[in-house]
Specification:
Length: about 210
């Protein structure tokens, strides 16, 4: 899905702003489906073993069905597609991150759970209604036909506002998941904490500016 025409793709340099902005509260979509119950875990549990590798589902049961995972992956790949700087969000585990997020037993994640599940169902149902195939099977122009109508909450039609709020939250989670991976941080040119062979102190111009030179 690289270089899709007119698709609502994230600007990589502004995506970090979304990660730091509180998402608007979401309401439930008007669907009658029944989803798996949220995990009933008491408290926050014990600290993880930091020298152990964890796979999705090791800490608590996950939620996505295979069909939901395919839809989520297709949506992640549209929001942050592969380009000449980095791979797509779908290929670096972001669907797993979103599944882990909505499966977690904590208040914020529980608030996101049903809107995300209902939104994924809505977007797949809409794809089948319009094009008689799943969202993951759509061509780029068909994807745009759906997402262009829900990519900006203030411009959404009244009947699509809830779907637009879902997309906004899913987009935030996709950005948050992607830009906390090694490839995402590299794309932002974020260095983070790295060992230095030596530290020469603050640059002279900084000391001068502070009146400490």
């Amino acid at each position: 899905m690289k270089n899709l025409p007119d698709t609502p793709r994230i600007d990589r340099r502004t995506a970090i702003k979304w990660m730091l902005t509180a998402a608007a509260s979401l309401t439930l979509l008007d669907t009658a489906s029944v989803h798996a119950a949220a995990p009933s875990v008491q408290g926050y549990g014990t600290d993880p073993e930091l020298n152990r590798g964890y796979k999705p589902g090791d800490v608590w049961p996950l939620t996505f069905t295979d069909a939901q995972r395919r839809t989520a992956a297709a949506l992640c790949a549209v929001i942050i597609p592969e380009d000449d700087q980095s791979p797509s969000a779908a290929s670096v585990g972001v669907p797993d991150f979103i599944d882990e997020w909505i499966s977690a037993p904590y208040a914020q994640q529980r608030n996101d759970r049903q809107p995300i599940l209902d939104g994924i169902e809505w977007i797949d149902t809409e794809a089948r209604r319009r094009f008689t195939k799943s969202f993951a099977e759509l061509h780029p122009m068909e994807v745009s036909a759906i997402l262009d109508e829900i990519c900006y909450v203030p411009a959404a039609k009244p009947e699509l506002v809830t779907a637009a709020k879902f997309f906004a939250r899913f987009r935030d989670l996709t950005a948050g998941g992607f830009y906390t991976t090694p490839v995402g941080m590299k794309d932002l040119k974020y260095i983070g904490n790295v060992p230095l062979s030596e530290f020469k102190g603050p640059p002279p111009e900084v000391l001068a500016q502070l009146g400490l030179s």
